[in-house]
Amino acid sequence: MSDTTPDIIYTKVDEAPELASGSLLPIIQKFAAAAGVSVGTKDISLAGRILATFPEALSAEQQQSDDLAALGELVKQPDANVIKLPNISASEPQLVAAVKELQEQGYALPDYPYSPSTDAEKAVRAKYDTIKGSAVNPVLREGNSDRRAAAAVKKFAQNNPHRMGTWSADSKTRVAAMDGGDFFSNEKSATLDKAATAKIVLETADGETVLKEGVSYPEGTVVDATFMSAAALDAFLADEIAKTKEEGTLFSLHMKATMMKVSDPIIFGHAVKQWLKPVFDTYGDKMAELGVNANGGLGSLLERVKDEPEILKAIEEVRAERPPMYMVDSDRGITNLHVPSDVIIDASMPALIRAGGKGWGPDGKEHDTNCVIPDNSYAPVYDASIEFFKKNGALNPATAGTVQNIGLMAQKAEEYGSHPTTFEMPKAGTVKMILDDGTVLHAHDVAEGDIWRSASARKAPIEDWVNLAIERQKATGYRSIFWLDANRAHDAELIAYVKPILEAKGVADKFEIMAPRDATIASLETITKGENTIAITGNVLRDYLTDLFPILELATSAKMLSIVKLMNGGGLFETGAGGSAPKHVQQLQKENHLRWDSLGEFCALGESFKFLADQKDNAKARVLGDAVEVATQGVLDHDRSPSRKAGEPDNRDSHYWFARYWAKALAAQSDDSELATHFAPIAKALADNESAIVSELADAQGNPADLGGYYHGDADKVSSVMRPSATLNGIIG
Questions:
Q1: Is 248 helix (H, G, I), strand (E, B) or coil?
Q2: CA 451 to CA 346: how far, in whole Å?
Q3: Of 67, 208, 297, 714, which has the maximum CB count within 10 A?
Q4: What is the Cα–Cα distance from 378 to 540, expressed in whole angstroms?
């Protein structure tokens, strides 16, 4: 890194985490400066990435640097130190909404082309598509993931157990997944014995179409290819809609149209079409003329046909015959199929399981639910969880142990669906992956509309992942399980890496290898007994499990400690999940109350300071990091976390208390007298002015808050909303 790069990069993101930064970041920068530590920002927000992608459309004053690309280079450096907050992984509706907001703010961005026809439109669409989905994480994650509940957070959750729903043995809630024709059943995988470059082609009766070329893989890369049959998917969805009505439960679809930015919106669109099949059969051509794209969900469909009474009537007639649907917002009539990014599987399924298998219906009441997860790769995790709790009752957070996670994700490992090698087949034919020496690595016969995808995992990240697991098991002694299915093509290739490394290190007896269903049951049995386990998983399961278990154990995944040991020596510290962030923003806009809990930021901050102490031999940074831990414990012990209700303490109050406990800990420590002397008057001022600060924060609540935008807020307005205490601002600066 250059000499001008800050010691710590704190990312600028979106929604509730970014609003919280408006209050917390000035505190961090004030405290860090006292130790000679600089804390700067890089903009990886959705709006920031859009602006950086279209400089030619903007004035010189409006243009924005490509901070994501800069961070992508920075994380490859040995002295990288990045605190990464959760950002929007944009679905198409979110991307379009952000573009519209920016256009209304005076940015002359091109419209998003839904159906590009000209070369210019195709070029614009290609640029926008680079922003969709999980576009940030693959760039920044140059290391594998170590995620766990911080000891203080776990202890607090056990001492203050959250409410759990009641499970009944006769619950009708279940998971439905395809039994063939899906990605799981069609997967092929191979490990390359030498470096290679591949092209992906579709051979049809009309000739060959190149879908992608120049895909380079180093020696030892595990390369997968698979597809989902559109016909099998449609038949499955139609069958499950009918079964749901027979069973008297709610119909729900659980996808990840953000991370799986190519495949899952298409699957989501199939569900919308099956739900309204009679309407599409009759009015499909007319709706196409109106610009309807089922992949965008019911919400955009209804907007497109709002002036077509005949179509609206047909929709209502079909909906009346369908089973009731799982609702995102019953009061506003927002269904499970309205917006593809509204229901994200790693947040929606744990919430439903925590609630005793209940989902909210259109009547505003809770009901048993049919949880439709088409692909069978990871559906067994949720199926096993539901069956376990039906049999054994809900998990007890007061006595439960914990599931930690070591996740394979470095260098875009297993980027299923986000990777630019996912395609919807334009015609029937054979898809082939052909290496530069002419070898056909994988081939699949496909039909028109099938979804074909490929992903890979490189040798170095796989080996690093296994060694990280060995290191973590040695440090904890916990039961350690590789969640790998020997009967799945990709997992079998990974097992061929895992076993020799474990044997060579003499630790094979300390690890188990289980298919995800069996590993789920084993892990639940372990934590039910109050014991702990480490789940060693691939990328997608890392994402799913680090929501599932924390939501059951802690009530949230936003409080997780997430350390990414970058492969070139740097550190990336992630602050938790942001799945509930949109609702938090809506509440702030309506009531000026932000219930976002910054505990994840506190945990990441402490680790970042301690990492910096080792990086640059900065003893003062270690004192700061140790004091952060004391402050975090203080926030927990004195129940200073945000309330969900307006009129009660919120995110801004928790930041005041965090600053107060942090300053107090720094003033009281004896390792650095200079820092103690510096922070003593700050600690005193924060304590002496408690009444004024708390009153000023409380007075800010109750009325609507103007942020100047949802995706691209006005900096001055956000600062005014998030820093309403003149007294606190006077102390912090």
A1: coil
A2: 22
A3: 297
A4: 8
Q: Which two tokens stand for residue 578?
A: 């942001």
Q: CA angle 528-533-538, nearest 5°? A: 120
Structure tokens at 146: 């170590």
The total of other beta-carbon atoms located within 10 Å of residue 393's CB is 15
d(CA 182, CA 66): 37
Q: Which residue has the tokens 């996740």?
A: 407
Residue 81 bridge partners (DSSP): 571
Q: β-strand 560-566 against 143-149: which pairing, if any? A: antiparallel
> Can you tell me the distance from the alpha carbon of 320 to that of 275, in angstroms, rounded to the nearest whole number?
11
Neighbours of 394 (CB within 10 A): 17
Letter string b/e over residues 212-231, b meaning 16 or more CB atoms within 10 A of that residue's CB:
beebebeebbbbbbbbbbbe
Distance CA 585, CA 571 (A): 30
The predicted-structure confidence for 270-296, as pLDDT tens digits, reads as follows 999 999 999 999 999 999 999 999 999
Task: Report the alpha-carbon angle 659-41-39, nearest 5.
Answer: 50
The tally of CA atoms less than 13 A away on the side-chain side of residue 632 is 27
**Using an 8 Å Cβ cutoff, are 614 and 663 in contact?**
no
The residues facing 212 across adjacent strands are 200
Given a contact cutoff of 8 angstroms between Cβ atoms, the answer to whether 41 and 11 are in contact is yes
Burial of 117 (0-12, 13-18, 19+ CB in 10 A): exposed
- Residue 327 CA to chain centroid, in angstroms? 21
Q: What DSSP element (H or E) covers 40?
A: strand 39-43
Give the pLDDT confidence of 588-598 residue by residue, as tens digits: 999 999 999 99
Whole-model pTM?
0.88
CA distances from 42 to 372, 573, 700 (A): 38, 14, 29
* Residues 174/370, Cβ–Cβ less than 8 Å: yes
Rounded distance between C-alpha atoms, residue 284 and residue 302, angstroms: 13
CA–CA gap between residue 655 and residue 183 (Å, rounded): 45
Distance in angstroms between the alpha carbons of the first and the last residue of the chain: 29
What is d(CA 297, CA 271) in angstroms, rounded to the nearest whole number? 9
State the Cα–Cα distance between residues 723 and 715, nearest whole angstrom.
Answer: 12
In the chain, what is the greatest distance between 2 CA atoms, to the nearest angstrom?
A: 81
Pairing of strands 39-43, 8-12: parallel
- The C-alpha atoms of residue 273 and residue 295 are separated, in whole angstroms, by 9
Residue 390, number of CB atoms within 10 A of its CB? 17
> What HEC string does 84-129 produce?
ECCCCCECHHHHHHHHHHHHHCCCCCCCCCCCCCCHHHHHHHHHHH
d(CA 305, CA 365): 29
Rounded CA-CA distance 287/440 in Å is 41
The residues facing 646 across adjacent strands are: none
Taking only Cα atoms into account, the Rg of the chain, rounded to an integer number of angstroms, comes to: 26
Residue pLDDT, tens place only, 412-440: 999 886 668 999 999 999 999 999 999 99
Structural tokens at position 31: 């405290």
In angstroms, rounded to a whole number, what is the distance separating the alpha carbons of residues 388 and 398?
Answer: 19
The residue ranges of DSSP E strands in 241-379, in sequence order, are: 250-253, 327-329, 334-335, 358-360, 366-372
pLDDT tens-place string over residues 450-477: 999 999 999 999 999 999 999 999 999 9
Other beta carbons less than 10 A from residue 320's beta carbon: 7
Tokens of 69: 């690309």
Side chain identity at residue 551, one-letter code: I
Spatial CA neighbour of 211 closest among 431, 8, 368, 48: 431
Structure tokens at 418: 């986000």
- Rounded Cα distance between 466 and 473, Å, is 11
